[in-house]
Structure formats: C-alpha cells, structure tokens
Amino acid sequence: MIRIPSRIPGLRKVTLLTLLLALFWISLEGALWREALLAALFSLVLIGRFWQRPGEDRVFQRAGGWLAAAALSGMALGAVSASLLLLMMSIKTGLHAHGPEFSPAEVAWALRQPPYWTTAGLCFGLGVGMLSLAIVRRRRRR
Predict the structure, then answer these.
(1) Contact, 135 vs 110, CB < 8 A?
(2) How crowded is residue 106: how many other Cβ atoms within 10 Å of its Cβ?
(3) What's the CA angle centered on 28, arms 85 and 115, to 5 degrees?
C-alpha cells in the first residue's frame, strides 16, 4: 500500500523557489537552460499540487495502480515541461522589443523535445514508483 500524504513535504519550498525565479525570469536575457529549468520547476509544482489533497491522504492499495499513476505523472511532467518551455520562449520573445530572444536553432531544438521529454518523464515516473514500492516493502519486512 502506498500512501501519499495530504501535505507533500517540501512542495511549499519548491513552489516559493519557483515563484522567486519567475519574478526574475522575464528581466533576464534568454538562456535556453534557464527557460527549461523554470518550465520543469513549474511542471513539478503543478503535478505536486495535483497530488496534494488537503485534509485527506491518497492511498493506492495495489502496486500496479501506483506504478500506473507514477508513470502517468512522469509523462505529464515531461509533456507539460516541454510545452511550457515553448510557451515561455514565445512570451519572452514577444515582451522583449529588441528582436528574437532565441536563435532559430534553439527554437527548432525546443520544438523537437516534447516526445523525448515525455519519454524521459515516463522513465522517471516508473523509476520513482518502483523505488518507492521497494522502500515501502522493505519497511514492512522490518
């Protein structure tokens, strides 16, 4: 049995860090790594907030259900991150009035990323799911 607490530890700190970075993000010149990092942090916060249900824990009775949920969450993390990256690149280019913020090669690279990031997210989600199952089963044996 996997139990997700009603308040996920550390989520508030990650949310505050993400909001702090977002405040400075628009004033900085475009750096693809910074845009990708902020997009991933936003996605992580969104998925964490989705899983957090104040006042009640979420419980998965079966390992398969937990692994499916973890895998889908990982896929969502990758897909949302890639989509947010493209959106953030568009916003920053539109708001800065000095010409293109990103080179055509950077834009082309970002457009090719969604399937890769979604697949990487799936692997990440499955890995986290399997690792958490192993930890829970090990604790039960003790």
Answers:
(1) no
(2) 16
(3) 10
Q: What is the tens place of the pLDDT at every residue in 49-62? A: 988 877 777 888 89
Q: Where are the beta strands (DSSP E) in the chain?
A: 2-4, 58-60
Query: Using CA atoms, how far apart are residues 124 and 44, in angstroms rounded to an integer?
Result: 12
Within 8 A by CB and 6+ apart from 1, the residues are: 59, 60, 61, 136
Pairwise pLDDT comparison (29 vs 50), residue with the higher score: 50
Report the candidate in 140, 134, 136, 125 with the shortest Cα–Cα distance to residue 67: 125
Distance from C-alpha of 133 to C-alpha of 29, rounded to nearest angstrom: 43
User: Positive or negative CA dihedral for 85, 121, 55, 18?
Assistant: negative
